[in-house]
Amino acid sequence: MAIESSHVKDQSLMELESENFGCSHYRRRCKIRAPCCDEIFDCRHCHNESKNSLEVDPLDRHDIPRHDLKRVICSLCDTEQDVQQHCIHCGICMGNYFCSICKFFDDDVSKNQYHCNECGICRVGGKENFFHCNKCGCCYSTMLKDSHSCVEKAMHHNCPVCFEFLFETMKDITVLPCGHTIHLECVKEMEQHFQYSCPVCSKSYCDMTHVWEKLDQEIAQTPMPQMYQNKMVWILCNDCGENSEVHFHIVAHKCLKCKSYNTRQTQGGPSSCSSRFEEMVR
Fold it and tell me: Coiled-coil ranges per the record (predicted)?
């Protein structure tokens, strides 16, 4: 009879373990007590979303200090306890993946979580698939090990489009050829608005040869009025950094070095449009 009771108890425990506990961010069998405001949340993201909403007074908004977490509450028996993987009361595993440094629990081990000592946080994707770049201060895919452009603390800033802090984001990130980092979905949104240059340094992040050829054709088919045909302006190329003196054109200005049209006008030359216009008015 005792054996049968023990079997039923073990079976019941297995059924409880298979339940989908947690929140939209993580599957886990515990809640956390925030050390900053002493309130209970499903995870740190739930805390940050709640405490940084528009309804909260700006002076009261804050993020949870993730490494300062000291207390968790078991989702099965509601026992509050120090941070640990197994509940001290019912023995349930509160997260199949557990990091004692980050105080982090997650049941979905298919993410291949690992802790990076250099980053100081847990990441997903499998440690064997990533390397830590000390100059950039973050982990990158091993496919970029010999090809990425280093930018000091590249991930320790906000996304230049949506302004979310990239170092701890849960969204996919891409590294542009210039070395700057940005959300992948933000890059796709930029492309929908025909923006193909880095929002940080303005360098083109994809092959624009076909676009430059179309601009060549458009400029050839758009002759400037006589008064502007000899006007020269200085331009700075955003792609190669070269300064050039070129003929002024209303459509675009082409870099003499790399043939890019991703340029900006820096000087108007010896005879600016406005001064020439004023002479004609007189």
Answer: none
